Amino acid sequence: MSLSNLINVVVRNGEQGYYVAECLEVNIVTQGKTLDLLIENLKEAVELFFEDELIPTNCKRSVLIYETLKQ
Length: 71
Prior knowledge:
alpha+beta
């Protein structure tokens, strides 16, 4: 996987106990009640955003880097 296939994502606590993910390079924002649901929603949002792009079919890895900040 080349660096051009990576999308940096910021994960933060949202309203009503949800997590919010926001991609830094592209206009993608999603949420989920748990981190697992957030990741599922993020994968779907990224796939929909890039549905017309040519993405190699052998590229099946996903990378999510997040940092939690205590307030």
